[in-house]
Amino acid sequence: MAFINWHITLSVIIVVTIKVTGTTFFLLYLPQIFPPVLERSLNSTSTEKSITAPSLSPTTFEGNFKYSTTENSRTGCPIRWDFQDGKCYFFSTNEENWNKSQSWCLKEGATLAVINNSDEQRFLKYRARSEVYFIGLQYNLSQRRWRWVDGSEDIEITMSISPPEFDCATIGVSDEVEPSSCEISHRWICEKIAT
């Protein structure tokens, strides 16, 4: 009669059960933890609003990544855009330099985010968490002043360095808006009026 070591057999069964359960939960919740960036597409770089039945999903493209989208009818913002105080904000997951970031926003009918008050700055900082995002603020060296992409010069924000060492601005990591090189790749925040 063969001798069976029940301790080893029981340990193997427990380990296999835990691995199968963990893998199942990982695969089940992967799209919620990481937005669906698994499908690649080179066809478009525009955000499409839903014009079909709710069961069908048009797509949004960010760079080469395709996302499922529908319009959020309560806010007038496309999916993956956050609504706050009558505006829609898009927080990218890709990284580009400042000029490419602004170009992407313009293709979406938006601009890089313009901070109009301390509440908006707190919202963007809270939403950015520990990531660094470009916003629509650049330093004009010849005029020696900061200027928003909408042409305004009113800056009612907290900045960390003045005069700046760099010519673009980011939000994230710290509580203040920080200067950054326009050529470094960062994530970006687009802003447009909700429809």
Outline the structure in words.
With 195 residues, the chain is of the alpha+beta class. The longest helix is centred in the N-terminal third of the chain and has 28 residues, at 6-33. The chain is elongated. The chain contains three helices and twelve strands. The termini are far apart. It has a domain at 77-193: Mannose-Binding Protein A, Chain A (Roll).
List keywords for this structure.
195 residues; alpha+beta; Mannose-Binding Protein A, Chain A; 8-stranded mixed β-sheet; two-stranded antiparallel ribbon; 3 helices; 26% strand
Summarize the structure.
With 195 residues, the chain is α+β, with helices and mostly antiparallel strands.
Fold topology:
Elements: H1 6-33, E1 59-62, E2 65-68, E3 71-72, E4 77-78, E5 81-84, E6 87-91, H2 98-107, E7 111-112, H3 118-128, E8 132-140, E9 145-148, E10 168-172, E11 178-180, E12 187-193
Parallel strand pairs: 8-12
Antiparallel strand pairs: 1-2, 3-4, 5-6, 6-12, 7-12, 8-9, 8-10, 10-11
